[in-house]
Amino acid sequence: MHQTIPPERFFGYLKWTEIDSMPHRENVVIIQPLGALEQHGPHLPLIVDSAIGLGVLGKALSLLEKQVEAYALPCLYYGKSNEHAGFAGTISLTSQTFYNILLEVADSLYQAGFRKLIFFNSHGGQPQIVETAARDIRHKYRDFWVFPHFLWRAPSNIKELLSSEELEYGLHAGDGETSVMLSLLPEQVKMSLASREYPPQLTQNNLLSIEGDLPFAWLTRDISQTGVIGDPTTASKEKGDLLLQSLAKSWAQIIQEVYEFPKAH
Ligand SMILES: [Zn+2]
């Protein structure tokens, strides 16, 4: 049941009595993986975001020094994915339900004595909700540290591995995600069906953009026929291995920093 998570780091394997007698629970880092079940074009399966999240987190936890106390909760496989509505198989929670789940998980952890929680999100459609929920949890519990983190924002070698066009427009099911999936779950990737689809030029000026500083609220249907936003045809397992290693190394460091946080005293 622990999948990629090292069993000794899997929250679901703990007994309640072990948690009840755990010393320094206020320092123990609890990590909630947040995925999604949504279309990823004709060549990738629905599970991509959850699979990549668990792949990176599992590797990161296996790199972590033993004395750093950290546990991963079971992944939340559903997310807020309404931008992919109209593509069969996408399962989406509403923003309200997703937000409520985050707050209620935090309530339960707080009542168990934990005081550090990382929301380890791997779906690009929901960082804003995760950030709002984290701030609201912090407001409710003044001795609870919450870290609303998005997997792809961690430092990595991605700029060396992907083209500049892909770094700007490869938002979904492109080179990065496809390469990591070729590394993690190659038998579920159909490279013969991979095709490149970049979004159309939307305006004559350069100020409005899809994901830049001045974006608009788009649905995938507005900008893609296949569900792909990017170029998966250049993906490779070698790139995926390198990206995965680099992300896992950063995440091990991030988890350690959360464990030591706040450093001041
Ligand atoms: Zn994705």
Task: Describe the structure in your own words.
The structure is a single chain. This protein has a 4-stranded parallel beta sheet with strand order 2-1-3-4, sandwiched between helices. It has 265 residues and is α/β, with parallel strands linked by helices. α2 (48-63) crosses α7 (175-184) and α2 (48-63) packs across α9. The protein has helices at residues 16-20, 48-63, 95-111, 127-140, 158-161, 164-169, 175-184, 220-223, 237-260, and strands spanning 29-34, 70-72, 116-121, 145-150. It has a single domain (10-20, 28-260), classed as Creatininase (Rossmann fold). The radius of gyration is 19 Å and the shape is globular. Zinc ion binds at residues 40, 48-49, 172, 177.
Primary descriptors:
four-stranded parallel β-sheet; globular; 265 residues; 38% helix; binds zinc ion; alpha/beta; 9 helices; Rossmann fold
> SSE order in H/E notation?
HEHEHEHEHHHHH
CATH-level-2 architecture: 3-Layer(aba) Sandwich
How much beta, percentage-wise?
Answer: 5-15%
**Alpha-carbon distance between the termini?**
38 Å
User: Helix proportion of residues, in percent?
Assistant: 25-40%
Class in CATH? Alpha Beta
Low-confidence stretches: none
Structural class, from helix and strand content?
alpha/beta
Number of domains: 1
Treating each run of at least 4 consecutive H or I residues as one helix, how many helices?
A: 9
Mean pLDDT: 96
What compounds are bound to the protein?
zinc ion
CATH fold-level assignment? Rossmann fold
Order of strands in the sheet with the most strands?
A: 2-1-3-4
- According to DSSP, the number of beta strands is 4
